[in-house]
Amino acid sequence: MGESDQAAIRAILSGDKEAYGALVVRHSQSLFRVAFRITGNEADADEVVQEAFLRGYRQLESFQLRSSFGTWIYRIAVHCALDRIGSRKVEDPGRIAPGTDSDPMDLPLADEAAGPERLLLSREIGEMQENAMHSLTPIERTAFVLRHMEDLTTEEIASALSIAPNAAKQAVFRAVQKLRLRLAALRVNV
Fold first, then answer.
1. Of 65, 70, 66, whose CA–CA distance to 29 is shortest?
2. Got the DSSP string for 68-107?
3. Which pLDDT tens digit goes with each residue over 31-65?
4. Which one of 61, 90, 158, 170 is most buried, by most CB atoms within 10 A?
5. C-alpha–C-alpha distance, residues 80 and 65, integer Å
6. What's the predicted TM-score (pTM) here?
7. Residue 53, Ramachandran bin (φ over 0: left; ψ between -120 and 50: alpha; else beta)
């Protein structure tokens, strides 16, 4: 863990509640990125980040200083995102994909100067990809995102999801197989 994270945690535990703001600023962007990729929408990702930091603050006394705060709060955010997905399905079981939010870190699928056919094709491909991601179970989607978008190892994924490494590996494998099947129509025969 970085020395600045340790110093901030010590200050918080000593009564300086304002020191938590430094941790929030330092780790918000990475939490938002993973929350957005898991939930698929900006509003949910914002709520996940807020909930993760709130839970982290409430549980800070149980945090062990020899651990990495970034990894610890990341794990909390992943669980919050999974909780959010689960509650969203209970609130609106027919909801598949929000479709209106876009990842600010993604590059556009087509050149702005592309013709209308190419723009339409790119939009259709994007919708197919998003629907394919939403066809995965929450654990599969999260495992896939953590492995292929966040570049975490199987052990890190297992730790973040609180599952066995073999279960994490299987979740990634199942996600890849399902995505390949759902997106097979996009393959171009050469």
1. 70
2. -HHHHHHHHHHHHHHHHHHHHHHH-TT-----S---TTSP
3. 999 999 888 889 999 999 999 999 999 999 888 87
4. 158
5. 22
6. 0.66
7. alpha
What is the distance between the alpha carbons of residues 38 and 78, in angstroms, rounded to a whole number? 8
Look up residue 133 and give its two tokens: 């991601």
pLDDT 10s digits, 9-40? 999 999 998 899 999 999 999 999 999 988 88
Q: Which CATH class is domain 109-184?
A: mainly alpha
Q: In the structure encoding, which two tokens stand for residue 122, read together? A: 């790119």
- The reply to whether domains 1-94 and 109-184 share a CATH topology is no
pLDDT at residue 80, rounded to an integer: 93
Range 1-94 has CATH code 1.10.1740.10: yes
Token pair listed for 103: 């990842």
Structure tokens at 121: 């094709």
For residues 77 and 49, the answer to whether their CB atoms sit within 8 Å is yes
Tokens 């000593």 correspond to 14
**Cα–Cα distance for residue pair 143/176, rounded to 1 Å:** 10
Handedness of CA 105, 111, 113, 115 (dihedral sign): negative
Domain ranges of the chain: 1-94, 109-184
